[in-house]
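From: lab user (bench 3)
To: helpdesk
Subject: output format question, protein + S-adenosylmethionine

Hello, I'm new to running complex predictions and I'm not sure whether the block I got back is the full result or only part of it. Here's what I submitted:
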Amino acid sequence: MTLTQVPAEQKRHKRELHGLIREAIQQKNGFIAFDEYMQMALYTPGLGYYSGSLAKFGAAGDFITAPEMGDLFAGCLAAQTAQILESLQGGVVLEFGAGSGALAAGLLNELDTLGVLPEQYLILELSGELRVRQKETIKSRAAEHFSRVRWLDTLPVNLCGVVVANEVLDAMPVKVFEQDASGKVMEMGVGYAEANDEQTPFRWLPGEAGAELNSAVQALNLVLDGNSYRSEIAFQAPAWIESLSEVLEQGAVLLIDYGFRQAEYYHPDRDQGTLMCHYQHRVHPDPFFEPGFQDITAHVDFTAVALAARRAGFDLAGYATQGAFLLSTGLLDRMALDGSTKAQLELAQQAKKLTMPHEMGELFKVLALTKNFTQPLCGFEQQNHLNRL
Ligand SMILES: C[S@@+](CC[C@H](N)C(=O)[O-])C[C@H]1O[C@@H](n2cnc3c(N)ncnc32)[C@H](O)[C@@H]1O
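Helpdesk reply: Thanks, we reran it on our side. This is the complete output you should expect:
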């Protein structure tokens, strides 16, 4: 597949980020772990993919997330959020990685319609540029609720309410490993090679796996079948879940992302892992193509997330496909609303993309974690596959 390189005017930006990654590689004797590379490529202030000024979301960007398609997703998520806030008789919403701000605006508007506005809508966003965009979106689409929104630099304490993270776990840096047929584990890291402007100066480089990675891979008991097996492990996700557990006193965490339970994630057939890059609406597997200008992601191992959540003191409240969750939270009722034929057609398109098995309906899952909250969640009425994790 041929991908168009970034335009010449972006070359300075590109060289700056290349320089920083190269320095990091040199300082570590020619090898950095892949999670360190991914962290730099996505989150280096001003230069990383999420921290820079690129469009990212929507038609002009590289990919489209559920909240970017319209208000259907936010409307359904609001039904679940409202149930929890009502039962708590108050509380806040905390959204991680709020993207363009579309979900925040949609949730606030729908929670208002349902008469269950949160005391505050908190946003924890790593990217300064995205914060600016979120402010613009909320001001233009949910102006009357803007004063309720607060951007945070760190996690709040004594949280009571609902935490939402849509497509956040997949954007957390992962380690890449390869296990050979004899069972030996190598860490796949990143090395540097001189290159001209048209070539990438970074390449895969195998290194010794440290004790933590080695024992995590051995614990997976992969079926090696005489071949080597390559995949990823996300160490940041469990640490993030633990920090959430420390601050949530009462309420729920709703994690929505693409991924599988562990048995499927590390299936013998998936021997090249799930690392994926998004660039101008094309999906490809090369994380070294134009770092800083493309998204790099890995699917989520929901079993690992659930285990980390239990260890951290959460209860597991629900696990369902996105399609089933949206149907349980009233997607069909929303489709029946009056509107022009054009509006009805647009709604039907959105619903299809969000719920059909070959679109986002099956690959995307919703995992709900709760703390001091025992009421069954409405989003898992039609399907709750916790016992399959
Ligand atoms: C694929 S985008 C999804 C954006 C948005 N939630 C949506 O659905 O359109 C991933 C987002 O996760 C954010 N992110 C990744 N790790 C994070 C963390 N530890 N804390 C907060 N945000 C994070 C990124 O900055 C980015 O905004």
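A quick orientation on your result: The two ends are 36 Å apart (CA to CA). Let us know if anything else is unclear.
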